[in-house]
Structure formats: C-alpha cells, structure tokens
Amino acid sequence: RAIERTGAPARTRSPPVSSLHDTTGHAKQTIMADLKKVEAPQGNLHRIRITLTSRNVRNLEKVCSDLVGGAKKHNLKVKGPVRMPTKTLRITTRKSPCGEGTNTWDKFEMRIHKRVIDLHSPSEVVKQITSISIEPGVEVEVTIADTN
Prior knowledge:
The chain is built from 3 helices and 4 strands; from the N terminus they run αβαββαβ. Helices cover 26% and strands 36% of the residues. The protein has a 4-stranded antiparallel sheet with strand order 2-3-1-4. By secondary structure, it is of the alpha+beta class. Residues 17-41 have low confidence and may be disordered. It has helices spanning 26-39, 57-73, 123-129, and strands at residues 46-54, 77-94, 105-121, 138-146. The longest helix is centred in the middle third of the chain and has 17 residues, at 57-73. It is elongated, with a radius of gyration of 27 Å.
C-alpha cells in the first residue's frame, strides 16, 4: 500500500514473472502479446525456404547453425533445420581392367545430406542473414513465397 505524493489512489503492483500460472492468465497473456509485438518485423512478410545440400555433414551443420543464429538475432520465426533423408549414390565396378581373373568388385558411395530451414520475414532481412560466409562444398537454394 503505497501512498503517492500527488494524492492519486495507490496502484497495485503487477504480479511477479514467476506467477505465470495465475488462474486468470492475465499476466501470461500480456507477456505473450509483448513477445508477438517484438517478433513481428515491419514490411511484407514472406515465407522463405532455404535448402542446404552437401557431402560434408560438419560444414552443412555449421552453415545451418549460422543461418538459424542470424535469424534468431533478428527475432524472426524459424523452423528448422529439418534433416531430410540422406541420398546414397552407389557405384559397383570390377577391379580388373581387362575382365580376367577372379571376380573382385569395388564399391563406391557418395552420401548427399540435405537440410531445410523455413523463415517468415521480409526479403530485406533475408539478404542480411544469407550474407554469412558459406563453407566450401555447401550448396544453398533460397525459395521465396508470399504468405498471403
């Protein structure tokens, strides 16, 4: 019960943040509304899909973490990285160049890893996010669509 000098009626304190389990849910609604205001960037929102493919998993994961980190720094909605099934390309060939001798075979395979990241943001912000240095051997494909 605080008494203000202006003679105005005393205001009650807002509940602490730890009381989000309030039965009225008022504090939770106001915090969620504040978060939505912060997350909504200005301009036309686009649905942007970034597809990353590589043979090297370590380089691919590094680029993914850089992209997601940059998007979260700009307070964008991020979904991903979603790990798509790995494509395994196999070639089986004879070891012997002339075809004579025992039938021995060599088996070679190349694995292609793929990640998909979805963003909801203006296209200007995506230019800033995708301007990061991309590791060698990682291919990036950006697809932009309107949210309308």
